[in-house]
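Worked Example 4.2. Read the sequence first, then its structure tokens.
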Amino acid sequence: MSIVKLSKVNIYQNSHLVLANVELKIDKGEFVYMIGKTGSGKSSLLKLLYGDLELTSGEGEVAGYDLRKLKHKDVPFLRRKIGIVFQDFQLLGDRSAHDNLKFVLKCTGWDDVAKMDTRINEILERVGLGTKGFKRPNELSGGEQQRLVIARALLNEPELIIADEPTGNLDPETSVDIMNLLFEISKSGSTILMATHNYFLIERFPSRVLRCDNGKIEEF
């Protein structure tokens, strides 16, 4: 089963053609790296997949949503099926880890407090933060903050997790811990597409690699 399908897609950023004639298929449970120089189109492709860029050329489908027919009001529903992990965390500094996750659940339609608390505790346990729910982000290490970001991405059991340089701000040892967690999540059925510049991690955790180069995407 394909989670991502793109055919004959041209991706534009402010009317500038960034990637041309993209053909891409990613199946359920796959772990896929995306590499390429800064400005090669990696971020533009990711934005297209989570509905931040409009598809105007070619055919595209993500988690069952036709990107050509995607309307602005549909984007929040698409994003319930996608977990996004950013390099710069984007956590709410004035709330505990638990309340950071509760905020996301409320924003995505949860309203039963008991069910929210149960789900949050399950996810914190899964990412190794079961005893840290009361702490605010500034009381967590960089690796723990990234685990919290991954927990946030997992809350609604996404079919696809998009990770944009998730280890970019972490030391090598912590990066390996985060990669172990991401691969564990992938083995449980979630598809992961990870943009990275870290070739050491690709060698340590081998998987399928896509490269953005000269306006094209190719298998590496």
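Now turn to a second chain, presented in exactly the same format:
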Amino acid sequence: MSTDLNHSFYATRRQFLARAWNGLGSLALGGMLARELDAAKVFNPLDFRPTHIPRKAKHCIFLFMQGGVSQIDAFEYKPVLNELHGKPLSRSTDITGELQGRLSFPHVCIGSPFKFQRHGQSGRYLSELLPHLARHADDLAFIHGIKTDNQNHGPSTLHVTTGSQFPGSPSVGSWINYGLGSTNQNLPGYVVIQDPRGAPVNGAAVWANGYLPAAYQGTMLRSEGVPILNLNNAASLSRAEQRRELDAINWLNQNHLEERSQAAELEARISAYELAFRMQTAAPDLVDLSDESESIRNLYGLDRTETEGFGRQCLLARRLVERGVRYTMLVHGVQIGKESWDDHGDVKNGMIRHCREVDQPIAGLLTDLKQRGLLEETLVVWASEMGRTPFKNGGMSKNPGREHNSHALAMWMAGGDVKSGATAGETDEFSLQSIGKNIHVRDVHATILDLMGLRDTELTYLHAGRKRKLTDIGGRVLDELIS
């Protein structure tokens, strides 16, 4: 090798700097451009984020039955109550709180007027009120004897849907969207479809974002008419004109943001403008069911008056899953009255009416998800805000009902990594309270997060100087429900 060639490898510092000045300039220019790109890049709160643990479920459908479903007449076979029908409980219990006060007054047991039968290989007992759901007995995993902290509808509804019985906390769907983001940037990550007859107790607080950024709140989707209120353009404004107007607004916001790099609310607002623009095309197509076959529409019960309302909600939920929406909440029941599950009187006819409205649509949803290969990537959760008592206060009446019971909420799950046919928890022979290890609603929330790939201890948000969680002091994952 020649000496000249050796010198090309072993240059002096002065020679190196003289030859490399163009490269150093490029590095400096690249650094300045990178800073400009970072300043221009807007944080999208719904960007996809990885899970904490590997799980199959990418979507969650939360079916909420407003009013307090009678677990005794739907999911729990308690023959001793039929033997005690019209008589007080046969033994004293160590129940506490408001329920203890009710039991201290004269009361009579109310046996279930419905027949129960075992279904599937799991041998699950289900009431005759749920013949369609019974065909999916082996897909379901049940939780019995769940404890909430309040016996009243308002606080208990918030407790089940937000983890706190007090207003102002983020809902389960908000936490999941905060943790995972969304795979569809043309629709909200969290969609709510309430009963077409009206709103639930607490209204929008049930799907609120609480102290999380506003991007994580539920967006209510109307089943008819304009899908999302205030989404459409003014009639005089063309889409091209709206695009130019939006670009001008975003340009002003971007200039404002360059000097305020930590302005998360402004970043979220820019992202929201863009999402709303894209939704104007995606949302109307979502609620247009004209491309659904007659057989699918009938599967959900859209051909029958009593099932059409909730059937449409369930069909829209499947379409939302297909479009990548992360979390969908369906609400059945309106406030407190005959159109809710709050059957203080005439529980027999109340349960017949309620179950007839939801049984076929829910079974249709499970069937449809399964046949499309979507159930394994969708967690389906069925819930109410409380259970009901096995007794009524006072004497026997012609059409007896049931009181509130915060010690015996029953829920079920299906899909994703849910262990089919599994059971967590158990209630006593009266279905009054749990026996064995107590299950609190925060344990259910920890389990839902786990099945979505999130650890409740790691899903936190700093608020008022404290790291907040959905499960507050932490929940116990119900491992017996996970395959």
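Notes for the reader: The domain at 59-481 is CATH 3.40.720 (Alkaline Phosphatase, subunit A). The longest helix spans residues 13-40.
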